[in-house]
């Protein structure tokens, strides 16, 4: 498996999201937006149902996604921010009243089946090619992008490590692809 990169340029993130939005591909737009804003692995993301994010009794989006991660078996609580909710709302508005048990990122094949990981990968890869984005960008890049930008906005490394369930800060540093340009930015901004 090749190493994937986070999307470091915020303009590239906007372009990726807009790529799907301008094509009226609301499912794919929501998939990318929710992934970028929750740090979920693609398997956990694709397994989400409307009941995980929306309370149909109150007609309101939930404040948190609560799930057991497939890879680690650990329970995780993730706050849903405005950007994620907005993308889900746009998708929901295109659907005929999805039920709580329906998958959010539903396949057109079968009855109530989520899209598969390989199809999600192809969706992202096609957008990356069409947009000529640099780096090795895949579904996992969306998870890494969350952490990279959380770190750039001053998120404590120990907290980011906890969000990812990493066992050491060294793993988190490698995961975020912190490179010489990032180090230079810190040095050049100091000017004490």
TrEMBL record:
GO terms for biological process: DNA integration; DNA recombination. One of its GO terms (molecular function) is DNA binding. Keywords: DNA recombination. The keyword Transcription does not apply. Pfam families: Phage_integrase. It comes from the Bacteria. Residues 2-188 form the Tyr recombinase domain. Gene3D superfamilies: Intergrase catalytic core. This is Tyrosine-type recombinase/integrase. It comes from Candidatus Eisenbergiella stercorigallinarum. The lineage of its organism: Bacteria, Bacillati, Bacillota, Clostridia, Lachnospirales.
